[in-house]
Amino acid sequence: MTAPTIPLAGRAKDLVGSMIDSSTSLLAAQRHDIVRFAMGSPADEAVPSDEFRQIAGEILDSSSFTYGATEGEPRLLGLLVDYLAGTADPASEDRLVITTGGMQGLDLACKLFVDPGDLVIVESPTYTNGSATALSYGAQLLEVPTDENGMDVDLLGDLVARTRQTPKAIYTIPTFQNPSGVTMSLERRKALLEMAHHWGAVIIDDDPYGLLRFTGEDVPTFRTLSPDDPLLFSVRTFSKILAPGWRVGWVDADPSLRQLLINGKQAMDTCTNVPNQHIVAEYISRGGLDEHLASLRVLYRERKDAMIAAVAKHLPGVASVTDPEGGFFCWMTLENEYADVDTRELFEIALAEGVAFIPGPALSPGGRFHNALRLCFASSTPERIDIGMQRLARSLETLTRG
Ligand code: PMP
């Protein structure tokens, strides 16, 4: 009997995968002293693991082991409302749904707003897990260049006009962007809101890093600029501020969308992992989150400074790098005689040298940025950052010497 053809859905061809996520298992298989600039993981020492262990022992009772409410555990929702009241983006409970990480928030956004063929605007470069989610719902992506002030909104009108389509959604990471580290300016945020309203497009505002500003002044959020705006859909997560393994995040959306979000989530996973929600809730209830965030800001500032210093020390005249005011990432662009280097080729050599990063083309749906790299400074100590940069410099020499 000949092997039957497996009857894949048409959309299966649009499941593009993520080099960022794949690098977790790739690196797990490597020699263990590799310097990890690749994944956007918090530092091990930034995770309050002792406290989590203690809480887990105390909190896990029978209520943790059954199905929970799809919209989220009531205790966590209540504590989140209280917590958000002290931030730039306060939200009432009827706006919130707990999600399985920020990724599920992005999936729900696309499930609600993206039909096959719809035009979705993304930053270039972008967090390609987000653009991959839009692609998985059949979106046409329009990449819009970014500079030190974020998405170049001035170009948007012309670029959209050329597509002869009206955008349905705008996917943006406005603050300490993944992968570039840049923050969208106030003027551009205002202009983007105006354009979204002009087109009737949703702004999918993905902001996992906003609470991790270690220098400079906060820029008003979209919600501050346009309170109760039904076209704003905010995707948030505890992954970067507590621990990504919990897979606990939330969306903040217009109350009219809440039942649809619940229905959409029910078709995915019924509810977010209940014990994990209880652990996060208990952690917040103990009141240490603000202090924890303050310590993360100190830790990550030191690491960002170490990365900038290591670039100046080991790659002078070779690369320019963004200098973010918060978050996890620097974006490096190879220059001068290195401008033609393909960072996908460099990646293989760098891995053998003992340093990992994400090559630029993996952060652009169209495979742009052949000579750029995303570098996560959050996971490594200053000493390891220096070693990693030295290895990167050596890899570049190996590649270009042929
Ligand atoms: N959006 C952005 C911009 C991110 O950087 C990440 C995590 N790397 C996510 C969403 C996904 O977050 P989570 O791990 O909570 O699913």
UniProtKB/TrEMBL annotation:
Domain Aminotransferase class I/classII large positions: 36-392
One Gene Ontology molecular-function label: transaminase activity
Keyword field: Aminotransferase, Pyridoxal phosphate, Transferase
Membrane in keyword set: no
Keyword Transferase: yes
UniProt GO BP: alpha-amino acid metabolic process
Cofactors that this protein relies on: pyridoxal 5'-phosphate
Cross-referenced SUPFAM superfamilies: PLP-dependent transferases
Superkingdom in the source lineage: Bacteria
Entries under Pfam families matching the protein: Aminotran_1_2
InterPro entries (alphabetical): Aminotransferase_I/II_large (IPR004839), Class-I_PLP-dep_aminotransf (IPR050859), PyrdxlP-dep_Trfase (IPR015424), PyrdxlP-dep_Trfase_major (IPR015421), PyrdxlP-dep_Trfase_small (IPR015422)
Family: Belongs to the class-I pyridoxal-phosphate-dependent aminotransferase family.
Subunit structure: Homodimer.
UniProt name for this protein: 2-aminoadipate transaminase
Originating organism: Williamsia sterculiae
